[in-house]
Design brief:
The chain is mainly α. The chain is 83% helix and 0% strand. It is built from 26 helices and no strands. The longest helix has 43 residues. The chain is globular.
């Protein structure tokens, strides 16, 4: 082999220098994640009952993932073969396999930690709120650090292999080979999110309707055989699925920014294009360090105020990331020639934080939107659902404006109105900024399912009510942080999809010119409408899957209540068959995740090829630059899916989160306090005027019974006794087990697949369609 040219040697040395400390940061994240995992395994899992419950949850979650992954292995092999034989290179196929493997591994690692942390969080709650919070948060930190560590490690290692070891050109590596890593991550994420979402919501909805609504037993009651399946679902859907989801968001934002950075500066002198391509990966490495510090801060200052502790750790990481971003851009200023990249990073950080705060406003019971849903529950399930839909719809406005502002600021700061390529690079950097501190934000998000399971174990193990009060409070905060995590994912999806769209327009060129999306072209309008329809079709498929699986679950719980003597009554020694319930959710999830997943992958390819060959047939086999064909049709498809998908995802995620917390607000006597605050000393008079006929009959019966009791005890049922009876009765009509609570349970049940199945899957749909189009762009011309 001839000696390498001096310029190639210099570039190889520069690439090695860039990747050295980047890979070191990834290894550091994985090492700390492993240390936290080991620390959790050394903690006390509680008494024998808690250990047994934890074992059932652990085994159920592992059984589901093994079965799901066994199907996904076949899928990965088939798609890798298609990529190879389609002429896209063995390098792209290898990257696809690595992306799929890393995505699955991140989800599995997080899920395994969460299943071990469930009972340990319950046991720690015996010592108080701070101890329980630390266990649950450190469990989430394992997932957060595993995701960012594996993401940066995978991208960095593949870059080193292709460019340094094999000597591939950087433009081909970024424009083709490394895209396979994002495609693999997105493919696994969609199936993991959809499959896990179907599993968890089938079990959750089935357990709620058959247990709380029909049988009238408390949530997480050990008599309900679907409770274990519900606990398993929290881990496979809200931990493993969410981990794979945000893994693909993270790597997609980095890879798209690297590609656009290279394209923006490829005509400049020196190695400006190489530096621009590596900046997003270096920012991700800085984000790992900032996340580790944020995690340490949260652990150090954990208090009895879980919300404040979690939020402050996130803010610390974001501030450090902004500072680090300016220092990094300043170091390479002579090469990049602009501070705009740093401001684009800040725009992404600010937009992500703002979306999180807006999500909290619309989904937390601390604020009026969710409280209005609780209040509307007093008039039944219909008004609860109407109110929740309204909150979900209005919640899309402010986040979309923030996303638009982030796009405008980042585009302008990087000089987009003078150089659109640099402006698009700035938008991609904003997406990286939004997810740069994912290590800590995902830790905050993933702690919620652990707290939820800890509460279930406390209930089933008959621990003191004080323990359940602590886990319920952690769970309530977890619902809000989970909604915030979904908001981050959706916001970053919009920015990343736009970045991929820009890269696609460059790659799918006709006659050497980037394609243009002309709305006067019928082909573009047709594909635009199809793209806008796909998120609705996708959501219908996933919602329907949850509905059918939940029906099977309800019928199974009914059967066990009817056929197992003493189960419904809670007879000592009588237990239900939880394994059967886990099997029902598993089978439904595996069977029904296939069609939505294939829809996302096949739609861009089918639309592109159909319109390509229509154009060729009409023009005697010639692809004319001035005529819209397959490439332009796919562009319209992506634009339509992006616009409707972002709106629908925000609406569903926020409505579902608000419904859930509205129910918990009632359970924690928040509605009763709310009525007292609104109507003051006249709250009882207001309530009496608005009791429905059934409640009035209950009131008369209750007062009569109280009068008879007092008289039988030799007392006199005077005005004071009557007022006391009325106060007790009215308070009961606003709390757990009341009619408003039952209405809120119905709303929460509707919202479950909104927030945990369909909504969070849509951001993956948007990005997966974009990356499929980008990888297979050469087929559409």
């Amino acid at each position: 082999m001839p000696p390498a040219a001096p310029q190639a040697v210099v570039r190889e040395m520069e690439m090695s220098a860039y990747l050295g400390w980047i890979l070191l940061s990834a290894v550091l994240a994985i090492v700390i994640a492993a240390a936290l995992y080991w620390r959790i395994t050394r903690m006390d899992p509680g008494n024998d009952v808690m250990r047994e419950l934890n074992r059932l949850i652990f085994e159920g979650a592992n059984a589901f993932l093994k079965r799901e992954y066994s199907y996904l292995v076949v899928f990965v092999i088939v798609v890798a073969a298609v990529i190879f034989f389609a002429g896209l290179g063995w390098q792209t196929a290898l990257s696809f396999v690595c992306g799929a493997l890393a995505s699955g591994l991140a989800g599995w690692f997080g899920m395994r930690t969460a299943t071990l942390a469930n009972a340990r969080t319950t046991q720690a709650a015996l010592s108080g709120m701070p101890a329980a919070l630390r266990v649950a948060f450190n469990s989430g930190s394992v997932l957060g650090l595993a995701v960012v560590g594996l993401g940066v490690l995978g991208i960095g290692a593949l870059l080193w292999l292709f460019t340094v070891v094999l000597g591939a050109r950087l433009d081909i590596t970024l424009d083709q080979y490394i895209l396979g890593f994002s495609l693999g991550a997105s493919s696994i994420a969609l199936f993991a999110r959809v499959g896990g979402g179907i599993f968890t919501k089938a079990a959750d909805v089935g357990a709620d309707l058959a247990g709380k609504v029909e049988a009238g037993i408390p949530e997480d009651d050990p008599r309900n055989p679907a409770v274990i399946a519900d606990n398993v679902g929290d881990n496979v859907g809200d931990v493993a699925g969410m981990g794979a989801d945000l893994f693909e968001s993270y790597v997609g934002s980095i890879i798209s920014a690297m590609l656009l950075g290279f394209l923006a500066l490829r005509g400049e002198v020196g190695d400006a294009a190489l530096t621009a391509a590596m900046v997003p990966l270096m920012l991700a490495a800085l984000g790992i360090v900032a996340s580790i510090i944020g995690i340490g801060y949260t652990n150090l200052f954990t208090s009895s105020q879980p919300h404040a502790a979690l939020r402050n750790g996130t803010f610390v990481a974001a501030a450090l990331m902004a500072l680090g971003g300016f220092l990094l851009v300043g170091f390479y200023f002579n090469v990049l020639g602009t501070w705009g990249i740093a401001w684009a990073l800040v725009a992404g950080l600010v937009a992500g934080t703002a979306i999180g705060l807006l999500t909290e406003f619309y989904t937390s019971a601390e604020f009026n939107p969710t409280r209005s849903i609780s209040e509307s529950s007093r008039t039944g399930a219909a008004t609860n659902i109407i109110s929740g839909l309204s909150v979900g719809m209005v919640s899309t406005a402010a986040p979309v404006i923030m996303i638009g502002l982030a796009i405008l600021v980042s585009f302008t700061a990087c000089g987009g109105f003078a150089n659109s390529a640099m402006g698009l690079f700035g938008i991609a950097v904003a997406a990286v900024g939004m997810l740069s501190t994912l290590g800590v934000t995902l830790a905050v998000d993933a702690y919620g399912p652990v707290a939820d399971n800890a509460g279930g174990i406390a209930e089933q193990a008959h621990l003191p009510s004080e323990v359940r009060a602590i886990t319920d409070r952690l769970d309530s905060v977890g619902n809000t942080t989970a909604a915030i995590g979904k908001g981050f994912a959706i916001g970053s999806a919009a920015l990343t999809a736009l970045a991929f769209f820009a890269a696609y327009s460059q790659k799918a060129s006709v006659g050497g010119q980037p394609i243009s999306i002309d709305l006067t072209e019928p082909v573009v309008v047709i594909s635009l409408l199809i793209g806008a329809m796909l998120p609705f079709l996708f959501s219908s498929l996933t919602m329907s899957a949850v509905g059918h699986a939940a029906q099977e679950m309800i019928n199974e719980v009914r059967r066990q209540f009817n056929e197992i003597p003493g189960l419904r009554e809670g007879k000592q020694g009588v237990t239900g068959d939880s394994t059967r319930c886990v099997s029902i959710s598993t089978a439904a999830a595996i069977k029904r995740m296939v069609l939505p997943g294939l829809l996302a992958i096949a739609a861009p390819i089918i639309v592109g090829l159909v319109f390509k060959y229509l154009e060729l047939a009409a023009n005697q086999g010639v692809n004319l630059p001035e005529v819209a064909g397959g490439a332009e049709a796919v562009g319209g498809l992506l634009a339509g899916a992006l616009v409707s998908g972002v709106m629908l995802a925000l609406f569903m995620a926020n409505a579902g989160g608000a419904w859930d917390n509205a129910k918990k607000h009632i359970e924690q006597d928040g509605l009763a306090l709310q009525m007292r605050n609104q109507h003051g000393e006249h709250w009882q008079d207001y309530m009496m005027q608005n009791l429905n006929p059934t409640e009035l009959k209950r009131y008369d019966a209750y007062v009569t019974a109280e009068r008879e009791r007092v008289v039988a005890e030799g007392g006199s049922f005077d005005d004071a006794e009557r007022l006391q009876s009325r106060t007790v009765f009215l308070g009961a009509q606003l709390g757990k087990g009341s009619d408003p609570h039952k209405a809120a349970v119905v709303g929460d049940t509707v919202g479950d697949p909104f927030k945990d199945t369909s909504g969070p899957s849509l951001n993956i749909l948007i990005k997966l369609m974009s990356i499929v189009a980008l990888v297979f762009a050469v087929l559409f011309n």
